């Protein structure tokens, strides 16, 4: 490694551009003999430092070193390690060239640091709405409970009514703009100096945390929110009315998930009974089984069942190729619809436990089936976007698989594109780590998000799923788009699975576009373990 004497004055000017630079006193003393050895970003996750983006810029020159902290923030700290030794008084050509590289490297890393220092902001904000997001909300709940201030507040889960009608009459662009305008007004309601805040959860769903003494004022506010819109050159005013589930934080609350579970329960009751505003109560808890405690209890008592929906290869004779594992919740003699409990599970954070519950049971079943001599097909498990903020996510998955001694290729981890489009860098890293470990990665609801081409380029995945209802064989443009999308994915080495086909003609049309893999009720509904074992024994679908 060739070394050089850096122009320290220019270097200082470059570093001065970073307003949060902190210098070790040895910097000046050894400034003429420096070389960058290592640059390391440390991310603070759940109070624990986790090293990220370690970059060894040069060999360690000399035995002594010191570190400079650049652009530190609450969430990301970037440290540059410099080593030093005595250089000749005059630089040669190679040393001068290295000087340019040295300064350029530092300048670029400062730019990266500035971006890294924004990580906390991106993690906690919905940029599209310029509002806080659910990550911020749950962090604030933890803070409020730790400080003992939580019982001052009430929490409301807010949903705008009749957005579909606005979308039907004026189109999605106008409806989307209207929701953002509503969000801006809701965002102005809290008194942030008193710890109040508002959150955009997604779509037309919001959460607001305010002093309990202001609840009457808030309920009046959401009963009539005027929004000014422009359509076809004409200005008009639309009045939004809202539905809300509200709970007051009590001394027996310990976690934000518990609070949000009660809000969801109150909101579901308001929706099911056509009541605009419902406050959580113990009486409501008795009436509604789909609450956080019931959900947690069912999970802890292993009451969830695992169903398997086959994926079929139709290239020759339709044959079982793989399967997707799905959680089902039996309650009061009925199977609760996944749409009913997944929303509650996601709002409360329990969904991450459900995902690992499914993974654990799938691995346990595969081990049992292998011991019975059955031929196993790969089985995928859906994982929520909430996992991407768990730094040990991949290692936790691998630990469960290895616990049962299963070949990694028999397990797939399935992500949903719309759930991850704002977390692309993390998803890219996770998909790489999973693929490196030999675990299949698949992408569900492909092409329904906003980053399809980026996903194709950046994500390491074996399989993408396309919803067949997006393909209309009578729509020539739609056919061209679908055909191109399937071919592009196949060129990049991905298997394309079409879900939701309803007829043999539908299948033949999609086969003509290049798709040979299907997941549909046309072949099989999700199967209980008993019936799925029979399908493993008889993988060919007879006419």
Keyphrases for this structure?
22 strands, disordered N terminus, single chain, five-stranded mixed sheet, 543 residues, alpha/beta
Describe the protein:
It is a single chain. By secondary structure, the chain is of the alpha/beta class. Helix content is 41%, strand content 25%. The protein has 20 helices and 22 strands. The strands form 5 sheets. It has an 8-stranded mixed beta barrel, surrounded by 4 helices. Strands 8-9-7-12-13 form a 5-stranded mixed beta sheet, sandwiched between helices. It has a 4-stranded antiparallel beta sheet with strand order 2-1-4-3. Strand 17, helix 14 and strand 18 (411-416) form a beta-alpha-beta unit. The longest helix has 24 residues, at 93-116. The radius of gyration is 28 Å and the shape is globular. Residues 1-32, 110-119 and 448-452 have low confidence and may be disordered.
Summarize the structure.
The chain has 543 residues and is an alpha/beta fold. It has 20 helices and 22 strands.
> Radius of gyration in whole Å, from Cα?
28 Å
How does the major sheet shape up? 8 strands, mixed, barrel
Number of strands: 22
Strand order of the biggest β-sheet: 14-15-17-18-19-20-21-22
Structural class: alpha/beta
Write the topology of this structure:
Blueprint: H1 8-16, H2 26-29, E1 34-45, E2 48-55, E3 64-70, E4 76-84, H3 93-116, H4 119-124, E5 125-126, E6 131-132, H5 134-147, E7 153-160, H6 163-170, H7 172-187, E8 197-202, E9 205-211, H8 215-222, E10 225-231, E11 234-240, E12 242-248, H9 256-272, E13 277-279, H10 282-287, H11 292-300, E14 305-313, E15 319-331, E16 334-336, H12 338-348, H13 351-371, E17 379-382, H14 393-403, E18 411-416, H15 417-420, H16 424-436, E19 440-444, H17 452-458, E20 463-467, H18 476-491, E21 495-499, H19 504-512, E22 517-519, H20 529-537
Parallel strand pairs: 12-13, 15-17, 17-18, 18-19, 19-20, 20-21, 21-22
Antiparallel strand pairs: 1-2, 1-4, 3-4, 5-6, 7-9, 7-12, 8-9, 10-11, 14-15, 14-22, 15-16
Helix pairs in contact: 1-3, 6-7, 9-12
């Amino acid at each position: 490694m060739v070394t050089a004497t850096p122009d320290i004055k220019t270097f200082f000017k470059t570093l001065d551009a970073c307003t949060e630079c902190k210098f070790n006193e040895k910097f000046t003393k050894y400034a003429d003999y420096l070389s960058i050895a290592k640059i390391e970003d440390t991310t603070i996750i759940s109070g624990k430092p986790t090293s990220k983006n370690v970059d060894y810029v040069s060999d360690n020159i000399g035995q002594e070193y010191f570190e400079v902290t650049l652009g530190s923030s609450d969430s990301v700290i970037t440290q540059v390690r410099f080593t030093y030794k005595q250089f000749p008084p005059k630089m040669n050509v190679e040393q001068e060239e290295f000087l340019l590289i040295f300064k350029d490297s530092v300048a670029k890393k400062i730019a990266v640091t500035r971006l890294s220092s924004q990580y906390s902001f991106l993690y906690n904000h919905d940029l599209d709405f310029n509002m806080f997001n659910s990550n911020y909300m749950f962090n604030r709940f933890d803070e409020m409970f730790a400080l003992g201030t939580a019982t001052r507040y009430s929490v409301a889960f807010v949903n705008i009514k009749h957005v579909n009608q606005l979308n039907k009459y004026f189109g999605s662009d106008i409806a989307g703009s209207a929701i953002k305008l509503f969000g801006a007004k809701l965002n102005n309601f809290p008194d942030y100096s008193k710890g109040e805040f508002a959150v955009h959860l997604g779509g037309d769903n919001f959460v607001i945390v305010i002093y309990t003494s202001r609840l009457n004022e808030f309920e009046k506010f959401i009963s009539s929110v005027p929004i000014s819109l422009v359509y076809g050159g004409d200005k008009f005013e639309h009045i939004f009315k809202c539905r809300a589930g509200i709970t007051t934080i009590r001394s027996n609350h310990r976690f934000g998930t518990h609070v949000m579970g009660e809000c969801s329960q109150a909101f579901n009751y308001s929706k099911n009974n056509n009541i605009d505003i419902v406050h959580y109560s113990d009486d409501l808890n008795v009436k509604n089984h789909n609450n956080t405690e019931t959900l947690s209890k069912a999970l802890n008592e292993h009451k969830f069942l695992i169903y398997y929906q086959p994926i079929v290869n139709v290239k020759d004779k339709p044959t079982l190729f793989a399967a997707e594992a799905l959680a089902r919740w039996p309650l009061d003699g009925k199977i609760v619809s996944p749409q009913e409990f997944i929303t509650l599970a996601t709002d409360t954070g329990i969904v991450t436990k459900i995902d690992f519950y499914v993974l654990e049971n799938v691995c346990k079943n595969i081990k049992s089936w292998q011991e019975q001599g059955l031929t196993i097909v790969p089985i995928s498990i859906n994982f929520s976007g909430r996992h991407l903020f768990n730094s040990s996510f991949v290692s936790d998955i691998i630990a469960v698989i290895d616990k049962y001694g299963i070949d990694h290729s028999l397990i797939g981890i399935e992500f949903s594109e719309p759930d991850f489009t704002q977390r692309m860098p993390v998803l890219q890293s996770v998909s790489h780590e999973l693929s490196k470990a030999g675990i299949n990665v698949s992408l569900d609801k492909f092409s329904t998000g906003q980053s399809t081409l980026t996903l194709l380029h950046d994500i390491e995945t074996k399989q993408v799923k396309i919803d067949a209802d997006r393909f209309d064989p009578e729509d020539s443009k739609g056919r061209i788009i679908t055909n191109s999308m399937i071919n592009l994915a196949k060129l990049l080495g991905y298997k394309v699975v079409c879900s939701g086909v309803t007829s043999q003609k539908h299948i033949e049309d999609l086969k003509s576009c290049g798709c040979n893999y299907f997941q549909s009720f046309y072949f099989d509904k999700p199967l209980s373990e008993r019936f799925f074992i029979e399908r493993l024994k008889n993988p060919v679908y007879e006419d």
